[in-house]
């Protein structure tokens, strides 16, 4: 038995140990890092960052990275910091030292970030690694600007899981300005995403200047106004109507955006969607259609019949050779996305040009004719020293060897297996996890959109590598991408609402290894990132705090069993049955509620401080919900 001083020492030691564990856990939980790093080791103490703190960079990085660091710290912390090349001198004030190293244990985009009370040091093999280390350092700083930023002592070793960490925005159906595009590139770069897929053409608009063919933007970039009419209920335009809705990017605009993205280590991949989704293209140059004597108008929404290029006319390939040549010269990316999805082949079956090509080349059907078209596009792209990307429909027919596949379909199709099993490099863009054009909360509480719900938690839960793949096939998974199609996003604010926070959830899917992913941690730190995004005037959605309500009606008892659920953890669902809005003092939901016919249930999600987090859910039990 321990007595006297021995017992006291034991108790004191035990309390110190408990305190250290508590402090370490508290520090770790305070690291609101997205995407979460590969390795995090907490230290003690903190680095005191002020305007007097100097950043030392390799000389090769002083201009680009140095200017970026100064810009961001002025915006984030309202600090004007000094950047120098070289290394800190003895006796100088505490500094931040960025080093390029040949350490082979650090991966190409990886880094080691060491924060000590006396200094901060970053090691990386490449400029990309230094850039991503700075993004982590930004997130270690306080959200609110301060003359003294306290940065916790920590050592972080980090690198991405996938090389492809992408976002696609469709600017064809609703045009977005170059300023808007730059703003989103700036955000995704801060979350270590490195690919911006620019869907530039579709039925509803052609958005990139092609100097050889000015009618593509003179006519193809503009459509008749159907504002206020639901997308799928819109009637087609007449030739006489004014065409006032649209816009396009000049080649100078494109160059400006590309340079902006380069400074943020984001590669811009252009998409020219053919042979389907080409109504704006054939409206501009009708001879590209199978219907020789027809004229067309740019689609306004809804369905767009007669929207495929003719796969049989040689003039189609001559035209596309010029387009691809200009695109290849304009975009420095190693990739050009050619689309290839959802091609309506009805006119091909009736077209003498298409049927003649089928016969000449021994093609069994129109699927093989599409393969013929795509393979010719691939030759044009490779002739310009680029690689072709296409949606997974191009796997049908004879395929498109040499292409990179974006595997989006599921259900009756399994391109996530077929593409890598057939040897194609594959990017996972599953519509069940990655199509963030789908609403993100209870449909009745969200803006208009597809009625399929894709909540934040489901985006976060994605595992891009199917278990059915062999190790060799799994290595063909280049990464993953979220896609925002713009049928239902008519404004910039609505577009951002759909992007965030689901895009940053995807950033963690693409960067963080599965062992380090944790939905509980992620949903607890998201509010910190809401603050960061809102400071940058980004519109965010708080739909993760929505309550989903449903009920089962009993005709025998004429009552309903109401069920409430939410995707978050650790909060209280409070409800009322008298028609009033719930407050922090309302009843807490623990299971189903039995309510009378016509009785209204209102429920909200509250935090520990009694603050309402999202919108109030309201429902009534009715007979007609059978």
UniProtKB/TrEMBL annotation:
This is beta-N-acetylhexosaminidase. It is an enzyme of class 3 (hydrolase). Pfam families: CHB_HEX_C_1, Glyco_hydro_20, Glyco_hydro_20b. One of its GO terms (molecular function) is beta-N-acetylhexosaminidase activity. Keywords: Glycosidase, Hydrolase. One of its GO terms (cellular component) is membrane. Belongs to the glycosyl hydrolase 20 family. It catalyses: Hydrolysis of terminal non-reducing N-acetyl-D-hexosamine residues in N-acetyl-beta-D-hexosaminides. Gene3D superfamilies: Chitobiase/beta-hexosaminidase domain 2-like, Glycosidases. It comes from Echinicola pacifica. The keyword Hydrolase applies. Its EC number is 3.2.1.52. One of its GO terms (biological process) is carbohydrate metabolic process. Residues 32-159 form the Beta-hexosaminidase bacterial type N-terminal domain. It comes from the Bacteria.
